[in-house]
UniProtKB/TrEMBL annotation:
Gene3D superfamilies in the cross-refs: 3.40.630.30
Protein's name according to its UniProt entry: GCN5-related N-acetyltransferase
KW Transport (keyword) present: no
Source species, domain of life: Bacteria
Keywords: Transferase
UniProt GO MF annotations: acyltransferase activity, transferring groups other than amino-acyl groups
Biological source species: Acidithiobacillus ferrivorans
InterPro entries given in the database record: Acyl_CoA_acyltransferase, GNAT_dom
Coiled coil: none
Entry annotated with the keyword Endoplasmic reticulum: no
Ranges of residues in domain N-acetyltransferase: 23-173
Classification via Pfam families: Acetyltransf_3
Length: 186
């Protein structure tokens, strides 16, 4: 898979085995780890990179892509599909290597992922939780149309601290739309 962004030389694409060194280079950073869920380890090792590339490329409803800039993987973006009563909700996550912060790459990557995910009829809602100490990520989401739905008090335990997270969501109008597999009574 290969998705263009609105930044020249920046695409979202499937992870390759050759991305291992880039994953280690950019992922083995405490500032990256500090803003991601517990599935992202620190320190980030060669074994972690190989396991991630294998996991990211499994088929299924989850989508995990590399953020490539000038021919090199510099971060990642993905959605985790909901299930049961949240079947039409996907949770968005993303990270960009620190050397590339402040260049609009995260915003471009999120915008491209939104276009891909909400284009089909598999999801009606995208949501993202941002740690309260990460206003830059909040700005990325707001720039692409996410709405701040609320603060989840003391909902995150990370880096030895219990902190708030901020819930953002983007929904599409589903009035008159029958979503795939919708067996709800009318």
């Amino acid at each position: 898979m290969r998705l263009p962004t609105d930044i020249p030389d920046c695409v979202l694409r499937s992870w390759h085995d050759t991305d291992k060194n880039a994953l280690i280079l950019h992922g083995n950073n405490r500032q990256i780890w500090r803003n991601l869920t517990g599935i992202f380890p620190h320190p980030y090792t060669e074994d972690d990179a190989l396991k991630w590339i294998e996991t990211a490329n499994r088929s299924g409803r989850d989508v995990n892509l590399a953020v490539e800039f000038s021919g090199k993987a510099i971060g990642g973006i993905g959605i985790r599909a909901g299930n049961d009563v949240t079947v039409y909700t996907a949770t968005l996550g993303y990270w960009i290597g620190e050397a590339y912060w402040g260049n609009g790459i995260a915003t471009a990557a999120v915008k491209a992922m939104i276009a891909y995910v909400l284009f089909g009829n598999e999801f009606a809602r995208l949501e993202a939780r941002v740690f309260a100490w990460n206003p830059a990520s909040m700005r990325v989401l707001e720039k692409v149309g996410f709405v701040r739905e609320g603060v989840l008090k003391y909902s995150i335990f990370k880096d030895g601290q219990i902190v708030d997270s901020v819930l953002y969501a983007l929904v599409r109008d589903t009035k008159g739309l029958t979503l795939a597999g919708d067996n709800s009574p009318s």
